[in-house]
Specification:
Blueprint lengths: L5 E4 L1 H5 L9 H14 L3 E3 L7 H13 L4 E7 L2 H11 L5 E8 L2 H8 L3 H15 L6 E6 L6 H14 L3 E6 L6 H14 L7 E6 L6 H11 L3 E4 L13 H10 L1 H4 L10 H12 L20 H9 L27 H10 L9 H15 L4 H13 L6 E9 L5 E9 L2 E9 L2 H12 L5 E10 L6 E10 L2 E9 L2 H32 L4
Parallel strand pairs: 1-2, 1-8, 2-3, 3-4, 4-5, 5-6, 6-7, 7-8
Antiparallel strand pairs: 9-10, 10-11, 12-13, 13-14
Helix pairs in contact: 2-3, 2-12, 3-4, 6-7, 7-8, 8-9, 15-16, 17-18
The chain binds 3-methyl-2-oxobutanoic acid and zinc ion.
Length: 518
Amino acid sequence: MSDQVIIFDTTLRDGEQALNASLSVHEKLQIAQAIERLGVDVMEVGFPVSSPGDFESVQQIAKTVKNSRVCALARAVEADIQACADALKPADQFRIHTFISTSDVHVQQKLRREFADVEAMAINAVKFARKFTDDVEFSCEDAGRTPIDNLCRMVEQAIKAGATTVNIPDTVGYTLPFEFQNILAQLFNRVPNIDKAVISVHCHNDLGLAVANSMAAVQAGARQIECTINGIGERAGNCSLEEIAMIMKTREALLGVNTNINHQEIARTSRLVSQLCNMPVQLNKAIVGGNAFSHSSGIHQDGMLKASNTYEIMTPESVGIAKTKLNLTSRSGRHVIKHRMESLGYNDTDYDLETLYTDFLKVADKKGQVFDDDLEALVFNIQQQDTQDHYHIEFLSVQSGGEFSTASIKLSAGEQQQIEAATGNGPVDALYRAIKAAVNIEFDVADYKISNKGEGEDGLGQADLVVAWQGRKFHGYGLATDVIEASGQALIHALNAIHRAITVNELKKEALAIKPTI
Ligand code: KIV
Ligand code: ZN
C-alpha cells in the first residue's frame, strides 16, 4: 500500500456552502490558486448545478488551475453530473464526485426510498460520470451511520460501476476514532474489489473528532483525506487541512505516511481563507491560531530560551510564519519592499510593485513605520480590487457630529457619476445613507465590524460587513488608515459583488432567451 496520502481539499465546496455570505468568482479563484500553491492533490471547488455563480467559478478555476486536479460535486442524478462535466471541461483532467445517502435514517427519512433503489441510482450515476472522465469519486453520504453490510455492498457496487475513489464520510461527525477505524477495517476485509479504488474519508467535526477520525482511518488503510483550510465547513466544520498535514509531517517516523503539501504555505493560505471567508481563526487553534507558537508562562519562556524543543514540537517557520519582523519607513525603497515580500513568500507576479509601493508610501507617511502584517494587508487589498468593478468611490467627505453627522460622496457607476449627501446617526450611518441614495440597489447592512490590522494602535483599520440583498448575503471588505474610509470601501466592495451577481443572472437569462428550441 502506498505511503502517500492524497489531500483532497473541499474548502470551496463544503467550506463555502457553510459561509453566511457567498464568495465571488474572483475570491474563489484567489483561494483556488492559494490551495494549488499549497500543493493539494485534488481540490473540490463547487456544486455547479446549484447556481449560475457556482457553475461559473468552477469553470474559471478549471481554466486556471494546472497543478492540482479540479473536482466538482454532483448528486447521483444525470443533470448534476452533466453540469459538472460542462463546468469542468476547460481542465486538462478533472474529477467528478457524485454522492448519495446510504444510512437507514437518510434513505428512509430524507430520500424516502428503498436501499435497492439508492444502490441502482449510485451505479447509474457512476457509470454516467465515467462517460466524461476516468476519474470518478463516489461518496456514501452518512457512511458513519450506515449498517456495515449495506456499506460493503454499496462500496463494492460503486467500484464495479467504475468509481476510482470511494469516499466514506462521517457526515454528522458521530463516530469515535476506534469505531471509524473499525468501519474502514471491515471494508478492507470484506469488499472483494476494494484494491481497485482509493479509499477516502471525509469527517465532520461535530464532536471535535474530525482530525482524529481521519487519522484513525489512515491507519486502517484510507489513502485520501478530505479536509478544508482552517477546518471550515458545515456546522462545526470539516477535518482541518493544516492539522492533518502537520500531524503526518511531525509524526512521519511513527505513522509511515506523507503528503505532497508545501507546509510553508500553510500560514499564508489560512490567513487568506479566513480573510475572504470572513471567518476569524480562534487564537488557540492548532497550527494557525495566533497563539499556536507563543509561550506565555515564565517557566515555558525560560525553557524556550534554553532550547526551543523544550516546548515546541514544530517550528513556526515550518508552517510559513516569518521569524524576523522588519519595520519599514517612507525612506525604504522599492527593492526593499520587493525583498521583504519575497521573504514573506510572495513572487513579484502576485502583486504589482508600483501599486504596492504607492499604497505603502501613503501608509508610511501616516503611520511612520510599516510592519510585515501591514504590507501583507496592503497586498491583499490590491488583490481584491477587480478591474471589472462597477462602483468606485471618487470622493468622500464625512463630518462626525453624533446624530447629525453628514456625508457627501461622489460615486462612479460604470460610465455614470452620482453625487449624493446625507445625514445620519454617526459618520458611518451618514456615509451608508449617502451611498444607498447613489446606487440603484435595495440592500440592508446585516453585520458590520471594525478591527485593527497590522501592528500597533495606529495600525490599519479593516472594515468587514455583510450586506443582505434579495435573500442572499454578500461580504464586503475595506482597508485604510481611516476607519470611515475603510467602511465606505467595504460597502462598495459588497455592492460590486451584488452587481456581478445581477450581471451573471442577466447573462444567464439572455443566454436562455436566445437558446434555440428543438
Ligand atoms: O459530509 C458529507 O457527507 C459530504 C458529502 C457530499 C461527501 O459533504
Ligand atoms: Zn461534508
